[in-house]
Amino acid sequence: MAGSHDLYAKLHEMQLPASGQIFKVPQVSGTLTEGYMFGWGDGKPTDADSGWAIGAIFISITGADGTNLFVNDGTVDSCDFNLVVITGA
Which domain holds residue 26? Predict the structure, then answer.
């Protein structure tokens, strides 16, 4: 179709940097402070780092099998990324 956008092809070819964070959650008065919701890179963020939303997901691109997915159980002012453990049925 002439003039149509091919979003799928653009996203398919997109390359992300080796590490980073995206999807910043906006500040909501009295309930949530601004922080990133998703990130990736070498290992997980250092505990007590700031700037990560509560419940943020981090993927370690260098972790061994079963040690790649983490979730922030801390706060936006002091993160606490813990390994997500998935067990088989």
Answer: 16-83
Domain assignment present for 44 = yes
Q: How far is CA 82 from CA 2, 4, 35, 59, 73, in A?
A: 48, 43, 17, 11, 7
Better-scored residue on pLDDT, 4 or 28? 28
**Report field, pTM of the whole predicted structure over 0.85:** no
26 token code pair: 């906006």
Strands 52-60, 35-41: pairing is parallel
Asked whether 70 and 57 are in contact (CB, 8 A), the reply is: yes
The Cα–Cα gap between 56 and 50 comes to 12
Residue 75 lies in a domain: yes
What is the count of structural domains for the chain? 1
Nearest CA to 57 out of 76, 37, 74 is that of 37
Residue 3 lies in a domain: no
**Rounded average pLDDT over 47-66:** 86
